[in-house]
Predict the 3D structure of the following.
Amino acid sequence: FYTKNILLNEGIRAWMAPQDQPHEHFVFPEEVLPRGNAL
């Protein structure tokens, strides 16, 4: 479970990271995943 947790956390961080970048690096369209309202 420990290794799986690390992989899951890394995956979440990798998925969340683009949301902190400028819009040019934003992976998802704002219509699909509005910034600030994703969670």
